[in-house]
Amino acid sequence: MVISNKKIDQAGRRLINKESQLSVQEANSILQEFRLIHQHPMSLFRHIIGRKLKKYSIDAAPVQRLKRIPSIVKKLKIQKNMNLSRMQDIGGLRIVLENMEEVNLVRNEIKKVEKHGNFKFTFANEKNYIKNPPDSGYRSIHMVYKYNRNIELEKQCRLEIQIRTKLQHYWATAVEVLGTCLNQPLKQSLGDDKYLDIFKNISKLFVSLEEKDIVTTYKTGFKRFVDVG
């Protein structure tokens, strides 16, 4: 079945109770199909990254995941102007590495693969939240690719590749877990300022640790963290 961007976006609107020509059942069916179509491209890209990690004897494994339906709907509700067909992280791969040297190496190796004639993806965009972190303190590299196939749904399929260090991953996981426990969207930088400020300072602490600047870590990041408490 061929589903147009228009139908996919109508499904997204219906699932967040906006005006749409679709029933809830139709919207759920379209979302499920659109979600599952990301599975094959994810597996292909995971294989590409796996080869690169093996080439450089990096002890890490790319993890692929399909965004859960409740998470998709929640994101549409929070980011009110987003169309479902343009959501870039329904299919995702994450590589958690030991340090920034490995992060930069893997990122650069992925960019090199783009030049290969048999590469089945097109680069869409990159956001380096390590070089340019948001105020929240989130740090990671996000690379988005579009899958190239002459099948309508798969032409619309985008994958988000996240590359980060272990410390950056621990931080992001803690934000998500606490947000879930408190029922607050801390991941989207919304919620109680007390918790948001704590995570901002922890992120600064982790930056110093990664840079091995222990003196600065103690005098600035850790002191501010204690003051917040």
Automatic annotation (TrEMBL):
Residues 64-186 form the RelA/SpoT domain. It holds the Pfam family RelA_SpoT. SMART domains: RelA_SpoT. InterPro entries: GTP_Pyrophosphokinase, NT_sf, RelA_SpoT. GO terms for biological process: guanosine tetraphosphate metabolic process. It comes from the Bacteria. Signal peptide: none annotated. Transmembrane segments: none annotated. PANTHER family: GTP PYROPHOSPHOKINASE YJBM. This is RelA/SpoT domain-containing protein.
